[in-house]
């Protein structure tokens, strides 16, 4: 695909000038940028080269404008706090659209918009939307620059906060611009907070607009996002590109773009295994990605915490790669007793959003320490004490930090080829029904499990907290095409693997509760006990017990050494309530009905087989 070879990367100085590549592809990029500028009318255009000097100047500027608070370098060097507008704190799924030519291709789970009409709407919104602001042109690579699984793109944005965040979450810089100039294909993404400044008008700490649009054009590989500064709506390389648009590219090219974490687990015998896990937002991906096993002899290395691109290899195995370069993690609940690795990762060079500020210039959030500080400034800038009614940090407050800072990041985390995948986990937040762990009997049963995942709503997106909703493959908000076709694609990819080399699929649930409402399973580091069973299963060291919903562990095969857990709680963790599962099957049938003809017959058969086993139980 490269039409021109350019020898050197332009020297990075952070001047904001147009890179001096003189090729037809570069002329196309410039023409596209000029077109966006003509529409949005920014005061100036800055081409981002990814240099240290540029990033420093950007952060200094944000502090000067009151958009970031510099944290006390004694506690948190190189770190900042952003406070969003109180209305702009999470992804806005109701305002997220797939503008495919045919409505059918967006499918029943996405908001569809007619592309022609949507382009008109967006033209109106973006008209003059960057007036008075700087428009940044940010070239980024998902995956190591030039890697065989990597994809590049450009984000145009009027938010310097977004630029700083993209710089952490992706690989930004002139090496990418050079690839574009050489003719590599790239994805176009455009972002405006939708808050133009008239001459003399004072800016606000978090500009945004009540009207929000996050729009994907899957046929032309474009993203337009308007009105929000929140990470998931503003870092377009992440959910918008690396999941929604990439899932479309993956469908066409025969691979998978998934909402998954990726780890390497080394067992006491020194054998390494790679596990990817799909959990809905705020259901434990980052935590499992940074797992510190509580059982001896096991170690975990982090490879990714949110997105994995997976390709079938020529050897019949699957290869998985994390396309991101950083973590955009949920702060609340991240503490010494839950995720000490994350706490250590956040020692410095971190952008925090909507956490609380301590009087000494450090940050705090619920769960960081057991006892809250006596005085804080809450996420909205108001005085806070432990007697306050509301949490000090927003429940969806976040940290943005480079993956390289993670103390247990794998040495080879930037290997562009990815790692061979042994296990895929599906999970969600389920107070009842779903056991701690269940093994799928084969790939199509695993795809069935993935397609039926449901989870209680969290603060990561707008909506009623705790409400149970279907979230197939944890991709409900992130699949860029018809979810029925996506199920079929998973089945098809499975057929391209050697059956004995395909990853083995398991369902897990760390969130089952007792009648008194408490979690039955300690979770976090103790999830290593479940991983231990899974690895011994795939290594053929333990047998499993058949149940109507899949294979369960024998109690004696679970390593529970040193764990204080009541026998009754264990019973409940693995209880398969036949009536509740028959009701679950009915609900799955209702859920499947929305896909009509797009639902693969194999999944209908899986549902019937489940009912048959439940009836016979
Ligand atoms: P992500 O958005 O999927 O990456 O989710 P996180 O790993 O950030 O976790 C979201 C929330 O779930 C945090 O408040 C965590 O403390 C909590 N969490 C994560 N793992 C567990 C677990 O094993 N058990 C329990 N009870 N909570 C967990
Ligand atoms: P996450 O989502 O909760 O899966 O990390 C990040 C986002 O809200 O964009
Ligand atoms: Mn996460």
From TrEMBL:
<feature type="binding site">
    <location>
        <begin position="396"/>
        <end position="398"/>
    </location>
    <ligand>
        <name>substrate</name>
    </ligand>
</feature>
<dbReference type="InterPro" id="IPR035078">
    <property type="entry name" value="PEP_carboxykinase_GTP_N"/>
</dbReference>
<keyword id="KW-0210">Decarboxylase</keyword>
<feature type="domain" description="Phosphoenolpyruvate carboxykinase C-terminal P-loop">
    <location>
        <begin position="255"/>
        <end position="611"/>
    </location>
</feature>
<comment type="function">
    <text>Catalyzes the conversion of oxaloacetate (OAA) to phosphoenolpyruvate (PEP), the rate-limiting step in the metabolic pathway that produces glucose from lactate and other precursors derived from the citric acid cycle.</text>
</comment>
<dbReference type="InterPro" id="IPR018091">
    <property type="entry name" value="PEP_carboxykin_GTP_CS"/>
</dbReference>
<keyword id="KW-0456">Lyase</keyword>
<feature type="binding site">
    <location>
        <position position="306"/>
    </location>
    <ligand>
        <name>Mn(2+)</name>
    </ligand>
</feature>
<dbReference type="Pfam" id="PF00821">
    <property type="entry name" value="PEPCK_GTP"/>
</dbReference>
<dbReference type="InterPro" id="IPR008209">
    <property type="entry name" value="PEP_carboxykinase_GTP"/>
</dbReference>
<comment type="subunit">
    <text>Monomer.</text>
</comment>
<keyword id="KW-0312">Gluconeogenesis</keyword>
<feature type="binding site">
    <location>
        <position position="281"/>
    </location>
    <ligand>
        <name>substrate</name>
    </ligand>
</feature>
<keyword id="KW-0963">Cytoplasm</keyword>
<dbReference type="InterPro" id="IPR013035">
    <property type="entry name" value="PEP_carboxykinase_C"/>
</dbReference>
<feature type="region of interest" description="Disordered">
    <location>
        <begin position="375"/>
        <end position="395"/>
    </location>
</feature>
<keyword id="KW-0464">Manganese</keyword>
<feature type="binding site">
    <location>
        <position position="398"/>
    </location>
    <ligand>
        <name>GTP</name>
    </ligand>
</feature>
<feature type="binding site">
    <location>
        <position position="91"/>
    </location>
    <ligand>
        <name>substrate</name>
    </ligand>
</feature>
<feature type="active site">
    <location>
        <position position="283"/>
    </location>
</feature>
<keyword id="KW-0479">Metal-binding</keyword>
<feature type="binding site">
    <location>
        <position position="259"/>
    </location>
    <ligand>
        <name>Mn(2+)</name>
    </ligand>
</feature>
<dbReference type="InterPro" id="IPR035077">
    <property type="entry name" value="PEP_carboxykinase_GTP_C"/>
</dbReference>
<protein>
    <recommendedName>
        <fullName>Phosphoenolpyruvate carboxykinase [GTP]</fullName>
        <ecNumber>4.1.1.32</ecNumber>
    </recommendedName>
</protein>
<feature type="binding site">
    <location>
        <position position="239"/>
    </location>
    <ligand>
        <name>Mn(2+)</name>
    </ligand>
</feature>
<feature type="domain" description="Phosphoenolpyruvate carboxykinase GTP-utilising N-terminal">
    <location>
        <begin position="32"/>
        <end position="251"/>
    </location>
</feature>
<dbReference type="GO" id="GO:0004613">
    <property type="term" value="F:phosphoenolpyruvate carboxykinase (GTP) activity"/>
</dbReference>
<keyword id="KW-0547">Nucleotide-binding</keyword>
<feature type="binding site">
    <location>
        <position position="429"/>
    </location>
    <ligand>
        <name>GTP</name>
    </ligand>
</feature>
<keyword id="KW-0342">GTP-binding</keyword>
<feature type="binding site">
    <location>
        <begin position="524"/>
        <end position="527"/>
    </location>
    <ligand>
        <name>GTP</name>
    </ligand>
</feature>
<comment type="similarity">
    <text>Belongs to the phosphoenolpyruvate carboxykinase [GTP] family.</text>
</comment>
<dbReference type="InterPro" id="IPR008210">
    <property type="entry name" value="PEP_carboxykinase_N"/>
</dbReference>
<dbReference type="Pfam" id="PF17297">
    <property type="entry name" value="PEPCK_N"/>
</dbReference>
<feature type="binding site">
    <location>
        <begin position="282"/>
        <end position="287"/>
    </location>
    <ligand>
        <name>GTP</name>
    </ligand>
</feature>
<comment type="pathway">
    <text>Carbohydrate biosynthesis; gluconeogenesis.</text>
</comment>
<feature type="binding site">
    <location>
        <begin position="230"/>
        <end position="232"/>
    </location>
    <ligand>
        <name>substrate</name>
    </ligand>
</feature>
